């Protein structure tokens, strides 16, 4: 390569390394500004519909009924047993419903992931189908099925299996059955998606290396399906904590969950401050749980999570 | 770790496999000798991977028998076959580190922890990955993953090792390096190995014998040298090495190309149409005064010359328009008589390099 002496001189006089530095720097800055400009509509939207209302909620929760600035709304949680009871009920329902969804959803997702493509997509439609019907309609349908003179009780009595109707609706079990049904797809869909990404060759390798079907499932398939299971569990659990319609209709007034308490406080007693405090507590507890969950997974993140 | 004494032969008889109504393997018979490195070579869709899957037990054949050292295994479930396998995409377990991946087959066999550690260490040594046991699989390069997969497949001292295009994901340099390493490892451990590839160079470099597969059948099973020098079908001649085919006719016990008699060292086949297989490196440029007794002379016109540094390729057309390719190294004596495009040339082909296959 023979560079022209004149050109070499010119580059040399610009002190080599500093050639065009200012221009390039300005160019990089212009680019970041342009990106920021493109982002601004969504940033504004997030600010207007998330940050502002939550800030407002928090602000509201700091005023008592008389309009005075106080922490009375939060103190109430510790003073009144009914709040603590509601809190415990909410978490009990959330745990049981999430557990039921896992027990029902894992085998279902596993079956779907093993079916041939065509059969799997037909079955998936049946999983998604309930999404096309409103939660209200589905909850009333469960009432029809589960109530004292409903389908299940009349069949069981007609068959002579029981003499007295079982109390399936308007109580705790009614709430759990209804919520499990409505939330099941939220567990099955992410779980199915993650099971589909498990490499069949990994399972084949497991068997080839001497692990029988059960051992291959336990040592390879199940650990690899955990990320999907975890996201499904988080979604279902968080949705449970704020669930309103189904517990309100299926609980028969006996099962009071957090969201129902909020509704009572604001619409029945018009105590916006207390309602806002309930909302803030639910939000904080949910975020804390998500954080805990993330941390727990992070501790064992070495393989499963980072390899995806 | 010595596997040689327990290496076992494999005998496959009458293997048939159809996917729906599409036949993939047709009445396939193949014997693999104990300790042999046998390669199944063929284009995609020739059935080589299906045959390997049947051997491993992942795919069920429609008919046939597989005997390993006398025991029928065609209905044995894969986890009881005791056959090691290296998968094309390695199929390492992403949720386990290198140590646990390699220890997996030992764990299934109930090997004690201390012995497991020792054997994993030895296997890591063997594939030159000393000290990488604690690494996560996603922290490894392609070549290292390949070695882990290999270590995992041999750590439990299987009687047979299967490899499904294990080097196809590596770049060229590393691939060639691993070919030599795999070969050396096989020599050292002596396990019966069935290797699948579509890369003829790889097959020739590594194998004791090669089974060339086409459309669900074995076209030819031979040593690499024999396969290259004496292909028995047009498919084999075309698939292994470069070839030009020239139609010839056999009559009255001799071979004719147009009105010229072709000399061949091989016995003259039955009367009828045949193909002469011409390898580019077997052709040479003839000088005008060169004696040509016992040499087949092909007159052609140069259409192009491609310079490739160490060698050159000369494309020429015969009188009937058929393409001939000559490849030679750039030695000064060859370069001195290098023709120019458009110039007539005479190519010489020795009788012992003249291969005939049936026209199909």
Description:
Chain A: It is found in: Cell membrane. Chain A: Keywords: Cell membrane, Membrane, Transmembrane, Transmembrane helix, Transport. Chain A: This is ABC transporter permease. The complex is a heterodimer of chains A (308) and B (360). Chain A has 308 residues and is mostly helical. Chain A has a domain of 167 residues: MetI-like fold, CATH 1.10.3720. Chain A is 75% helix and 0% strand. Chain A contains 13 helices and no strands. Chain B is of the alpha+beta class and 360 residues long. Chain B has two domains: 232 residues, 3-Layer(aba) Sandwich (Rossmann fold), CATH 3.40.50.300; 117 residues, Nucleic acid-binding proteins (OB fold (Dihydrolipoamide Acetyltransferase, E2P), Beta Barrel). Helix content of chain B is 25%, strand content 34%. In chain B, strand 12 and strand 13 form a beta hairpin. Chain B is elongated and about 75 Å long. The mean pLDDT of chain B is 90. Chains A and B meet through helix 9 and helix 10 of A and strand 6 and helix 2 of B.
Question: In brief, what are we looking at here?
Answer:
The complex is a heterodimer of chains A (308) and B (360). By secondary structure, chain A is an all-alpha fold. Chain A is built from 13 helices and no strands.
- Note the beta-strand portion of chain B: 25-35%
Q: Please summarize the sheet with the most strands of chain A.
A: none
Number of strands of chain B: 20
Class by alpha and beta content of chain A: mainly alpha
So what's the CATH class of the largest domain in chain B?
Alpha Beta
**CATH-scheme architecture of the domain at 90-256 in chain A:** Orthogonal Bundle
How is the CATH topology of the largest domain in chain B named? Rossmann fold
- Runs of chain B in which pLDDT lies below 50 for 5 or more consecutive residues are none
Element order of chain A: H for helix, E for strand: HHHHHHHHHHHHH
Distance between the termini of chain A: 47 Å
- The overall pLDDT average of chain B reads 90
- The number of helices of chain B is 9
Shape of chain A: flat
Kindly report the name of the CATH homologous superfamily of the largest domain in chain B: P-loop containing nucleotide triphosphate hydrolases
**How much strand of chain A?**
under 5%
Q: What is the N-to-C order of secondary-structure elements of chain B (H for helix, E for strand)?
A: EEEHEEEHHHEHEHEEHHEEEEEEEEHEE
Largest interface (CB < 8 Å): A-B, 25 and 32 residues
Main β sheet profile of chain B = 6 strands, mixed
